[in-house]
Predict the structure.
Amino acid sequence: MFNKVLIANRGEIAVRILRACRELGIQTVAVYSEVDRQAMHVRYATEAYLLGPAPSNESYLKGEKIIEIALKSGAGAIHPGYGFLAERADFAQAVEDAGLEFIGPKPYAIGSMGDKAIARETMMKAGVPVVPGTGGTDNLSDEELLELAPGVGFPLLIKATAGGGGKGMREVKNIEEMPTLLQSARREANASFGNDNIYLEKMILGARHVEIQILADKFGNVIHLNERECSLQRRHQKLLEEAPSAFVDDDLRQRMGDVAVKAAEAVDYESAGTIECLVDADKNFYFLEMNTRLQVEHPVTELVMGVDIVKEQIRIARGRKLSFAQEDIKINGAAIECRINAEDPHNSFMPSTGLISHAVIPTGPGIRVDTGVYAGSEITPYYDSMISKLIVWGETRAQAILRMRRALEEYKVVGVRTNIPFHQAMMDSHPFMGGQFHTRFVEEEFSMEHIAEGKETFPEVAAIIATLVQHEETERAAHVVRRNARDTSNWKWLSRWERLSK
Ligand code: MV4
């Protein structure tokens, strides 16, 4: 059994895993790139080793070097976090071959779920509903796909078997435009994955993206931790997640949970994993893909299920049985996570880099902030733009929304632009309050236009605003209670929400 873990990641997730290790009394090893010398995860670990220059393929993707550091430092296990090496079956295998424990599923499970066609076939055999379409494991030619297309029905989607995250995906409205789209899908898949195999799926319209968290130990015990609603995303980047989903009723929840357990059992799954599904307006659900890793949005499940998913992963890797059974756990309240990104929501979500000179992090009841940066941190263009996750818990979904509004108001970041105004607008949006949205909501129906543009850059304007903010803070400090400028009363808002969700 290991007593020291190497964390092969950076940022908020590295810190999250380090915290779990600390609580378990486990020693930690951090790795870092040249631009991350001062990073929070480096300071938080027991020891830290330099990997190389900033670009990922010269640092956090150097699997062999990471394994070497683990062996040298005496770590007995590697936690990959998400992204980077987390879903690379060859890395998981190399870790195992080096005599170390990979904190995640076995290479076989990672590999078979990484190929979407194999995943589809495995799930069909296990009785998991998949979207109607063609088999993808037999490398169909363009001619064969054209012949099968009318049977699948339009609109349909061309998907890459090596895909995920929408790469190599094409929407086809009719047979006429299909030959061109087959070619461009193959080209993109080949460029992205070095594999141009594609297959067809009927397109599910107005769908929601709902995923089920599962946990499995080395003894074949599998449980699910219910669903997360992940429909609010832009260009396949999730922006906000919640648990439970406002759209999922008890019956659907039960059906999805049972199926998710079957899906995990079909690949002898071990550790934490997620079954991603599409749910249509009639509450039919279809398996999309399985994520064989800890996910960014795991905290919303932790807050409503009362389970520490990262600690469970570590316990499982240490050969312990799951510490609870399915009937021991139930949903308590509601949780929402806003991904706080260094990007400008008023300017097509352009990434914003620079020094975070000042930050006020929301605190207080029901608030959790998972972050890997602090005032003084530099946001570089080398990695993703997420600087923190703001997660709130409430007794009901409405209470969680009120709490998120409060937390977003408290949150101040100086030095880089953030998408906080986007999240504030979302918290004020009626479709969001009513739980009525789908995967295209942000791109097609949501507008930031009623939010102040903030393009004034005159120093006088900045000075006036700074004075006003200072005044406001002083007032707050003096306990002067004023009404929220944006809304007359939370009670009024709450009753409006109740009407909307009927
Ligand atoms: C779909 C779909 C509708 N019908 N498949 C997008 C990324 C990849 N993981 C699968 N995706 C989709 N597959 C069928 N048959 C709609 C999407 C989709 C989507 C899925 C989840 C979250 C956000 C999305 C945004 C656009 C499209």
